[in-house]
Design goal:
about 160 residues; alpha+beta; two-stranded antiparallel ribbon; 3 helices; about 25% strand
């Protein structure tokens, strides 16, 4: 669980977006030269996941719905220091677990690669609708990121 806002300890994933950490890259001659671009954390740690039913219920009750063709995205400002993701894919989407798990993997990957673009710290629940099992990854990205952008949550 992410530490409450204002806590002393904070994981790298919950660090401010304007972190001043820099990375070094080897130059052509083999020496290292500082690269002054901020390092973006693309991990998906356990702190960035909604796990408990009570956490999901709170987002279902109080979250703002954003709609896409094959997904509903519920967004709620988080009490924690980092944005968190929850995914719901029921058997109505597809009776085969392989297909449901593929959808969940694709949504997790989309969140992992784009969570640094979310403007505020949010709890996000993505609900897959029937028919989303046929969507390729670019279409899933277009729909979910488009809904978040339209709602003003994505930079």
């Amino acid at each position: 669980v992410c530490p409450p806002k204002g806590a002393e300890r904070c994981s790298a994933a919950a660090a401010p977006r304007d972190a001043t950490a820099f990375q070094s890259r080897p130059t052509v001659k083999g020496t290292t030269k500082a690269d002054y671009s901020p390092v973006v954390d693309f991990s998906f740690p356990p702190e960035a996941r909604l796990k408990r039913g009570s956490e999901f219920d709170r987002v279902y009750r109080e979250g703002r719905p954003l709609y896409a063709r094959n997904f509903t995205v519920l967004v709620l400002p988080s009490r924690y220091a980092c944005s968190r993701l929850g995914i719901t894919v029921t058997r109505k989407v597809d009776k085969r677990a392989v297909v449901r798990n593929r959808i969940k993997r694709r949504i997790r990957e989309l969140f992992r690669l784009n969570r640094h673009r979310i403007k505020e710290v949010m709890d996000i629940v993505i609900i897959a609708k029937p028919g989303s099992g046929n969507c390729p990854m670019p279409e899933i990205a277009r729909q979910i990121l488009g809904a978040l952008r339209q709602g003003g949550y994505l930079s």
